[in-house]
Amino acid sequence: MSEVHLIVDCQNILGEGLTWDPAARHLYWVDIEASEIWSLDPATGRTSTHKAQERVTCLAPRANDGLIVAFASGFALYDPTTGERKDLVAFEPENPNTRLNDGRTDRQGRLVAGGFDEREGKFVSSVVRIDQDHRVTTLLTGVACANGICFSADGRTMYFADSPARTMWAYDYDGQTSAVTNRRVLNRFDDQPGLPDGSCIDAEGFIWNAQWNGRRVVRFAPDGRVDRIVPMPVLNPTCVTFGGDGLDTLYITTARYLMTPEQFAAEPQSGALFAITPGVRGIADCAFCG
After folding, report:
1. Which CA distances in Å does 184 have to 161, 171, 187, 264?
2. pLDDT tens, residue by residue, 114-171
3. Which of 24, 147, 175, 204 is the most buried (most CB within 10 A)?
4. What is the mean pLDDT of residues 246-267?
């Protein structure tokens, strides 16, 4: 069993959005509710924190330096060192109840991200893709809380979870035509303690998923069976990604969002960044192509 190590006691309210930047050799993540972008240099252990102008939900390094950021209200190019922000497109401006949530780049370097009806929890949001020319294409509709977005090594399968539906799905993904087809259930969480949150893929094609309110990270086989369970020392794991020069460390964000004072007192490391060495390697996310 992989031992869970505390990496940064960052006290995030809602840590999320993990991604590894192989060019900079840095790990990025966000604290949604604190409107913060965090980074870690694993070689030195040095962290940095940048306060953004609004809530930031996920991000990806750009091939041309800087970041593309999914703010709650929409997509923007962003330089955390200067605070310079270039807004690209608003997300569902016609619906004040929804915001952006989970996202990850596909194998062509486009950012795929989905929304969250944070006020009523209705299935009224969507999953969209933003391309190199900043054109946005809707991939899925009828979404309540998008999570678990990640892609197989060949880019032909997209994995997605809608947390309130307690289900992870796999889709055929055509990176050229934008077609997302042949939806099939990867795993239903009816018999699991938590809800599906953020996911990533390893080099063997297995899917790692953080279970919100479940105290664990789970590795699923491509056929959906549970392959491995990693117990966590806190209630709410939120996102996972592989990082480090060998992509052999699995990093895990967590949250203290919605916890009672008594729960937080009992688990004061809630909101920290953790890691395990699972014995398999990951696959690096692509830099955003725009």
Report:
1. 12, 7, 9, 37
2. 999 999 999 999 999 999 999 999 999 999 999 999 999 999 999 999 999 999 999 9
3. 147
4. 96
The tokens for 127 are 């999953």
Report the alpha-carbon distance of residue 287 to residue 64 in Å, rounded: 9
Contacts of 105 (CB under 8 A, 6+ apart): 60, 111, 112, 285, 286, 287, 288
pLDDT digits (tens, 9 = 90+) for 159-193: 999 999 999 999 999 988 879 999 999 999 999 99
Percent of the chain with pLDDT over 70: 100
Looking at residue 1, its pLDDT comes to 56
| Identity of residue 208 | W
Contact between residue 237 and residue 229 where contact means Cβ atoms under 8 Å apart: no
Instruction: Give the whole-angstrom CA distance, residue 158 versus residue 106.
Output: 8
168 φ, ψ (degrees, to nearest 5): -110, 135
User: How much is the CA Rg of the chain, to the nearest whole Å?
Assistant: 17
Using alpha carbons, select from 191, 182, 218, 222 the residue that is nearest to residue 204.
Answer: 222
Point out which residues pair with 151 in neighbouring strands.
158
**Which residues, 6+ apart, have CB-to-CB distance to 248 below 8 Å?**
242, 277, 278, 280, 281, 282
Rounded CA gap, 94 and 19, in Å?
Answer: 30
**Closest among 238, 148, 230, 226 to 187, alpha carbons compared:** 226
Q: Which two tokens stand for residue 57?
A: 């939900």
Sort 88 into a burial class: Cβ within 10 Å, 0-12 / 13-18 / 19+: middle
3-state helix, strand and coil shares in percent for the chain, rounded to the nearest 5: 5, 55, 40
Residues composing the chain: 290
